[in-house]
Every structure is written in structure tokens, then in C-alpha cells.
Write a sequence for this structure.
């Protein structure tokens, strides 16, 4: 007997991707329930070759649901996740609402799968920020091999990280440029078409943005609190796929060749690193792929035991929907939950 899975935010970019990935990976679900706000009730979403009607979140009873994949934003999650969890349904949340709660495990299965056992404290598991998820997949095997002391990260984040509104704004502004229409900034603080914006999320007192702080806090929580992290997060005019230039300082010596060999064997990683024209991955090529791609692996002679790497992944998949489904698979494969109907 399979599981009953609810998806909150099923009409959004990530929610729809969750539905696709659950079907693609053959998740053992007997029933899929797409949920959204009342205004989306009655819309249809695709699950394999089926169309399923969206139900209103506030009207749904979670008492017979096993897992809820939550992708409706932090405010919705803060209100609803504890209510859903109290019904005995495990919530896997894609927002930032629970990531920094010490009683909620923050999980990337390739990095810290064993931490998932802590979900029983609140019945909630957090999914990391999209830029952090791909980063720690690449860093974990290198940290195990040579112990990371410090990382400097510059992100190049696609507009899909800002939702459908971000994608629409890039499209409409790009079209406006070609037909000489006026450009309007709604989702972003400045024009995004043919431009880059060094500002994602709100500014904090120290001058960093919340997005940059998330990379710092989440890397420390999942990988190692001793690692020093600094980040600059930049929005770029790309529809799907986040890229990161990462400078790493290690405690122990590690060569570029050694790093390349380690990453080739690491779960979730694909190395494409030829020193020739086109011998690397760009965000465009990562779209629709599950892997975290690593290119441009090279030694940094300006610091002791330093490396530079280029990390690219589909932010809607590994950065959000795929990682959420992998967490659900971890619960099932480790027999940490059983279908309620079977248990009854």
C-alpha cells in the first residue's frame, strides 16, 4: 500500500515540478492531492498523464495524509505547517520558515541524510535555499577529503528563483527592449533584461542581503559550523538554472586533479571540466537535469590549499522540488514512516 501525498502550492513553478518529479521517479503514492489557495480551487494540474483538480488548503483534512510537500512561501508555512504536523502528517517545507529552527532538520540527502531522524520533534523537515542546496552537494565530498576552512561564493541566480512573476518580468522586459516599449520594474528593484542585479531578498543591518545570509547559515548547519562563509548573491537574466563561482580554502592540501576525481565519484555530482572552448556547463544546459554540475576546477595560488570551482544546477529541481522529493524518499526508504492506512 502506498502513501497519500499532499502538495501545497501545487499551481506554482516548484509545486508543478514536484508533481513531475514524483511521477518521474515512481514515488510510491496511492494518492496525490494538489492544494493551493481558495482562488486556485478547481484548476487542474498534471500528474503523469492525469489531470487532477486543485483543492483549497483551508478546506482539506490532513488526518489521512502521510506527507505534505509545502511550497507556498514562509508565511503560509508558519501558519499551516504546525497544524498539518499535528495531524500526524510529515511536512517537508521548501520555504525559509523552519530552516534555522534547531528542532527542525535541514536536509540535503547527499550531504546529511542521517540528520533526518530529528524530524520527530516537530514532524517538520526543512528544504534548504536553492543556492545552498547545490553548493553543499559539491562541497561535502571535498570537505570530507581535506576539511574546508573558508568559502567565498558569488551566485548568479536565475529569475525563476523569484517565481513565475520573475520569469514573466524577464520575458516582458526583453520583448519591450526589442520593440522599443517602456520597461516596468515590478518584481525586481531594477531592470533585469540585459542586466544583473546584486540584490536578492531584503537588506540586513550589516549590508548583506537575507539571501547571502541564508547561504552562510545553512551551509554551517548542514556541513560544519566551523566553516567561514561569505557570499554575494546576484540575480541574472536567465530563466532557469543557478550558477556559483566558489573559492575554497582547505586545512589540508588538495590538488585540482584530486578534487576532480573525488567529485566524479560523489553522489549527485557530474564533473564536466575540459580546458577547451565549451568544456564546462552553463545554467541553460542544466535546465531539466537532476545533477549538480561542477566545472572550472583549478588551484588558487593566492592562498594555501585553495581551489576555485564553478557549480551549476537547475534551481527548480535540485534547488527545490527534487530535493524535497528526495527527502520524502529518504523517509520511506529508511522506514521512518508508514502509510497511515496500512498502519490502521
Amino acid at each position: 500500500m502506498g502513501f497519500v501525498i499532499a502538495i501545497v502550492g501545487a499551481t506554482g513553478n516548484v509545486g508543478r515540478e514536484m508533481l513531475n518529479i514524483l511521477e518521474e521517479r515512481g514515488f510510491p503514492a496511492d494518492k496525490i492531492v494538489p492544494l493551493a489557495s481558495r482562488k486556485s480551487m478547481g484548476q487542474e494540474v498534471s500528474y503523469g498523464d492525469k489531470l487532477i483538480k486543485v483543492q483549497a488548503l483551508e478546506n482539506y483534512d490532513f488526518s489521512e495524509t502521510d506527507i505534505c510537500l509545502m511550497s507556498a512561501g514562509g508565511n503560509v508555512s508558519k501558519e499551516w505547517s504546525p497544524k498539518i504536523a499535528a495531524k500526524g502528517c510529515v511536512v517537508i517545507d521548501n520555504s525559509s520558515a523552519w530552516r534555522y529552527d534547531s528542532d527542525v532538520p535541514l536536509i540535503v540527502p547527499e550531504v546529511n541524510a542521517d540528520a533526518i531522524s530529528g524530524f520527530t520533534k516537530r514532524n517538520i523537515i526543512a528544504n534548504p535555499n536553492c543556492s545552498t542546496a547545490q553548493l553543499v552537494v559539491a562541497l561535502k565530498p571535498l570537505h570530507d577529503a581535506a576539511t574546508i576552512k573558508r568559502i567565498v561564493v558569488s551566485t548568479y541566480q536565475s529569475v525563476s528563483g523569484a517565481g513565475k512573476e520573475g520569469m514573466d518580468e524577464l520575458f516582458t522586459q526583453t520583448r519591450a527592449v526589442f520593440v522599443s516599449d517602456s520597461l516596468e520594474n515590478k518584481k525586481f528593484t531594477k531592470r533585469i533584461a540585459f542586466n544583473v542585479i546584486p540584490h536578492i531578498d531584503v537588506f540586513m543591518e550589516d549590508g548583506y542581503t537575507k539571501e547571502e545570509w541564508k547561504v552562510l547559515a545553512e551551509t554551517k548547519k548542514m556541513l560544519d559550523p566551523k566553516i567561514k562563509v561569505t557570499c554575494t548573491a546576484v540575480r541574472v537574466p536567465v530563466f532557469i538554472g543557478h550558477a556559483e563561482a566558489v573559492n575554497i580554502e582547505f586545512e589540508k592540501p588538495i590538488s585540482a586533479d584530486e578534487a576532480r576525481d573525488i567529485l566524479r565519484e560523489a553522489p549527485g555530482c557530474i564533473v564536466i571540466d575540459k580546458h577547451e572552448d565549451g568544456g564546462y556547463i552553463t545554467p541553460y544546459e542544466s535546465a531539466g537535469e537532476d545533477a549538480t554540475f561542477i566545472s572550472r576546477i583549478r588551484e588558487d595560488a593566492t592562498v594555501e590549499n585553495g581551489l576555485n570551482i564553478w557549480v551549476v544546477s537547475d534551481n527548480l529541481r535540485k534547488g527545490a522540488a527534487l530535493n524535497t522529493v528526495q527527502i520524502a524518499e529518504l523517509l520511506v526508504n529508511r522506514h521512518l514512516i508508514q502509510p497511515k492506512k496500512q498502519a490502521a
In short: The first helix runs from residue 13 to 24. The longest strand covers residues 148-157.
